[in-house]
Design brief:
The complex is a heterodimer.
Chain A (H helix, E strand, L loop, with lengths): L2 H15 L6 H9 L12 E6 L4 H14 L4 E3 L7 H10 L11 E5 L5 H8 L3 E4 L7 H4 L2 H12 L5 E5 L3 H9 L4 E7 L25 E7 L2 E5 L12 E7 L4 E4 L2 E4 L5 H17 L3 H10 L6 E6 L3 E6 L3 H12 L5 E6 L26 E7 L3 H9 L7 E3 L3 H11 L3 E5 L1 H16 L1
Helix pairs in contact in A: 1-2, 2-4, 3-9, 3-10, 5-7, 7-8, 13-14
Chain B lengths: L1 E7 L10 H12 L4 E7 L12 E4 L4 H12 L2 H10 L2 E5 L1 H5 L3 E3 L5 E3 L7 E4 L7 E11 L2 E11 L1 E4 L6 E5 L9 E2 L1 E2 L3 E4 L5 H4 L1 H16 L10 H13 L7
Parallel strand pairs in B: 1-2, 1-3, 3-4, 4-14, 5-7
Antiparallel strand pairs in B: 5-6, 7-10, 8-9, 8-11, 11-12, 13-14
The chains are: A alpha/beta, B alpha/beta.
């Protein structure tokens, strides 16, 4: 009965051999058979990771940690997290009777569509990282995302791994009465309470009164409590009690771990992974080995050797962009900045989020010039003009011209790009490296 | 010269970068040597709109609008009084809706508005059926006519608008198919245009500043600013929407 699956698998094999991974086989599978996803016979463990930021990294860390413990795993490691990407991943990892050939499946799933695939995928573990503003024009409002997740998790009987420091995420725990809930949290550290950032969800979802923060990590993430009804009182199963940014380590339950990148959001990703390990009864040592050696995905602090180093980061919403800006701020050398702002569907067609980013962080950090690029180059330029960078702006609408400009300047640079320009720009930078 | 701005519920009605409007007003005043102070009004504060020259309120999610609703009703008498004093209002999306008769949300729950104007808003019942996308509008205000761009994202359909801000050239506006966008009186500019509104539409920013100066100092002379970047950003969007930019 696997003729259609056979076609999809053959497509995948041919395309992979020619260096095209991608979602096309999944697209064909879903075109040939609208019940394609439902046919797969899932293994014992199906781990779904969703949320706004850090999905790809967290899912990959979980997959690698499971592998380190001796399990076989299939996962959508490149972040193809919509229906067709998931279909491609499953097709490539199954036999001709749709049986997944692994001990576990780890899937990153888009937070806006996860409610549709949830029951089909039959997850045994659901990890929810955080909910920030991201591409709101696709869903309307963040409230819709949360409501839909509440609906699909109400009768979920598996392990539910929640970020206890995100008031938007913790709401799920109030409704998921059948799930085994495991909460992670990160303690106050030297970067807590550094910035007053746009917070969303800082009101108690139960009673509507303002939440009180004992400390704030970034955006609305932090230790919060409602003094009226106790919302936010948590008993985390994994708690990070200290972070040493000089050593790039953190401790939890008396054990020291190395963070794969020295930043607060990465510690949260690690905490999520450790919570999955605990829920599945796997030695956290397996995760630690992965944390020590894990290399970030493409476009996550990826350095290209142009005439001077160029560090590339994906940006897609204020919270993630602000974390990148803080990182840039920590580097004192004179530098060029390049921002490629596109507004294609995958980027989010509403670019107003750039007005919620803290570009003023760049004011004190020896910025030589800021190159504005992409389909909305003038929008990002205008944004920066109103943050006091008028004299430093260079507009190169075509990303290729922007990359050439960076290379010819011969100065260290930081490039931030929205999703749809990321892969083509990386290819351009890679070519420049070889010269 | 000095202008005082009050930003209503900055921590609740803060969706879609509407804060950018405040940044633009401040900067365009500063470049002309006009002192500009911005105060925020949050739940339970006792500041009065009538003490200010310009009052701004942005859009928020339904959830947030429910939180501030009762507090806002308490401001109604002072707002009505401030109209006589000439206070100028810039209201985006949710802020715009709440100055009308009522807002009926997608669950059928009715929130009475301030009732200062006759228009009313009813949400589409299908959450997936929102008015979302780039929008171009032929704005007519204070004897000037020009093209403006923005990004709309609203389920609410606003009807019975006596004096729209402009004619929709591309996109939706007050309702999915009314052909008109926003609301304007001598005191109020209400609109669904996020983007935010003012960076790419500096003429609207300057009209607000002029209106405020006129009633406070009897003059509306504003030194011209270099808006090359602003105009390029707006015209790029107009062209994409198939609308001829202003000459």
């Amino acid at each position: 009965m696997g003729i259609r699956l056979g076609i999809v698998k053959a497509l995948h094999a041919v395309l992979s051999a020619r260096g095209h991974g991608g979602s096309f086989p999944g697209y064909v599978g879903l075109k040939l058979d609208k019940h394609f996803l439902e046919r797969f016979i899932m293994p014992e463990q199906v781990i779904v990771v969703t949320g706004t930021n850090g999905k790809t990294t967290t899912a990959n860390l979980i997959a690698e940690s499971l592998r380190a413990s001796g399990k076989t795993v299939i996962n959508n490691h490149r972040g193809d997290n919509l229906n067709i990407g998931i279909a491609s991943t499953l097709a490539a990892g199954s036999d001709l009777s749709y049986r997944i050939q692994a001990d576990a499946v780890v899937l990153e799933v888009d937070e806006l569509t996860v409610y549709r695939q949830f029951r089909t995928l039959q997850p045994t573990v659901l990890v929810i990282n955080n909910f920030f503003r991201d591409q709101l024009d696709r869903a309307g409002e963040i409230e819709t995302i949360i409501r839909r997740l509440i609906e699909v998790t109400e009768d979920f009987e598996g392990d539910l791994i929640l970020n206890g420091d995100d008031p938007n995420v913790l709401r799920i725990a109030d409704y998921a009465k059948k799930a085994r809930i495991h909460i992670f949290s990160v303690g106050e550290n030297s970067t807590s309470n550094q910035f007053d950032e746009a917070k969303e969800g800082t009101f108690c979802p139960r009673c509507g009164r303002p939440l009180r923060y004992l400390y704030q990590q970034y955006s609305h993430i932090g230790r919060f409590v409602c003094d009226t009804d106790g919302y936010g009182t948590i008993e985390p199963v994994v708690f990070v009690d200290s972070i040493d940014y000089d050593k790039g380590t953190f401790t939890s339950a008396g054990k020291e771990y190395r963070s794969f990148i020295n930043a607060i959001y990465a510690v949260y990703n690690c905490a999520a992974v450790l919570t999955v390990m605990k829920a599945l009864g796997i030695d956290p040592e397996c995760a630690d080995r992965v944390f020590r050696t894990y290399r970030l995905n493409e476009g996550r602090n990826e350095v290209f050797r142009l005439t001077a180093p160029c560090t590339v980061n994906l940006i897609k919403n204020p919270t993630g962009a602000n974390e990148v800006l803080k990182e840039i701020m920590a580097h004192e050398e004179e530098k060029n900045i390049c921002i490629i702002l596109n507004d294609n569907d995958v980027d989010g067609t509403d670019v107003s989020w750039i007005w919620d980013c803290h570009f003023e962080h760049l004011r004190d950090s020896a910025v030589h010039e800021i190159i504005c690029s992409g389909t909305r180059a003038y929008d990002i330029a205008l944004r920066l003009k109103y943050d006091g960078f008028e004299d430093k702006l260079v507009i190169k609408e075509n990303p290729k011209d922007a990359a050439d400009y960076l290379n010819e300047a011969g100065m260290e640079s930081w490039l931030m790009s929205t999703y749809s320009a990321l892969h083509s720009t990386r290819a351009i930078l890679k070519k420049m490296e070889k010269r | 010269m000095e202008l005082k701005i009050l930003w209503l519920f900055d921590n609740l009605m803060d969706l879609y970068g509407d804060r950018g409007n405040i940044q633009v007003l401040k900067e365009r005043c500063a470049r002309r040597g006009i002192d500009c102070t911005v105060d925020t009004y949050r739940l339970g504060d006792d500041k009065k709109c009538s003490d200010y020259d310009i009052v701004f309120m942005g859009g928020g999610a339904d959830h947030e609008q429910n939180l501030l609703y009762e507090d806002l009703l308490g401001l109604k008498d002072d707002i009505a009084y401030s109209f006589g004093k000439g206070t100028q209002y810039l209201l985006i999306c949710g802020g715009y809706q709440l100055f009308g008769q009522y807002y009926l949300d997608q669950d059928g729950i009715r929130l009475d508005g301030l009732g200062l104007y006759d228009y009313y808003t009813e949400a589409t019942t299908d959450r997936n059926n929102r008015c979302i996308g780039n929008i171009a509008v032929e704005v007519t205000i204070d004897g000037e006519s020009f093209k403006a761009v923005g990004f709309e994202n609203h389920g609410g359909q606003t009807r019975n608008v006596a004096s729209p801000l402009g004619r929709t050239l591309s996109g939706h506006g007050n309702t999915a198919d009314s052909g008109y966008e926003g609301f304007v009186t001598d005191n109020v500019i209400g609109t669904y245009m996020h983007g935010p509104l003012l960076p790419k539409n500096p003429r609207i920013a300057d009209i607000l500043i002029k209106r405020a100066l006129r009633r406070k100092y009897g003059t509306d002379e504003l030194a011209p600013l270099d808006d090359t970047l602003e105009n390029k950003a707006r015209n790029a969007m107009l062209k994409r929407l198939g609308v001829q930019p202003d000459g």
